[in-house]
Amino acid sequence: MSKPLTGKVALVTGGSRGLGAATVRLLAEQGADVAFTYVSSEKQAQAVVDEVHSKGAKAVAFKSDQADMSGAPALIDDVVAHFGGLDILVNNAAISAAGTVDDPDTDTAALDRMHATNYLGVIAVIRAASRVLRAGGRIITVSSGLGSRVGVPGAADYSATKSGIERYTMGVARDLGPRNITANVVEAGLMEGGMEAPDPETLKALVSSLSLQRMGHPEEIAAAIAFLASPAASYVTGAVLDAHGGYNA
Known about the structure:
Layout: E1 9-12, H1 18-29, E2 33-38, H2 42-54, E3 59-63, H3 72-83, E4 88-91, H4 108-130, E5 138-144, H5 156-176, E6 182-188, H6 200-208, H7 218-229, E7 240-243
Parallel strand pairs: 1-2, 1-4, 2-3, 4-5, 5-6, 6-7
Helix pairs in contact: 1-2, 1-7, 3-4, 4-5
């Protein structure tokens, strides 16, 4: 198998399960040394590390809560200390909370934590990483189809976090372009084994709204991320790559 990422160091936030774990595996298969974060699933994180090691690649897991923005510089320092540098940042860690804006019973504390994790936390990691990313580096931010089309009630806050971080990533592409660092977005969609699925009727409606009429597999979205991390995407920056089954078609 071709290993276009040999010699590169990658950091994947939220890499212990789902899309994050699939991305860790794929980047490692393509030759990168991969660090990733987790919040509470230490056993799952170790299982991913062990799997990568069993295939002759390198991986390390760091416990880090993205909602605590103050921890971002230390995380980046730990990655650089362990692997000697940083070339690829995949902003994958995110949580989901729902509630219509007029519902008095909406858990606003959960919404606030989501904003901290999905938006402010991503910004903190990008800022810290940008100072050490080597020339030719890659920043890939995982968003959602809801970042450009809400489509369902109760998703205003979640959609706002994703839309906001997409625009931020576009600005990062402008700021870091002179250093030959690219910054792009992958809009992910419904995935098997992803975030907690909505109720069956809502899920059915969402799937029926897709051009491909099915849920995606984490490996399919990870492939889009790996493309943007690869030499093949050297002239792609400030772009949004849809990997959500045609939600916007």
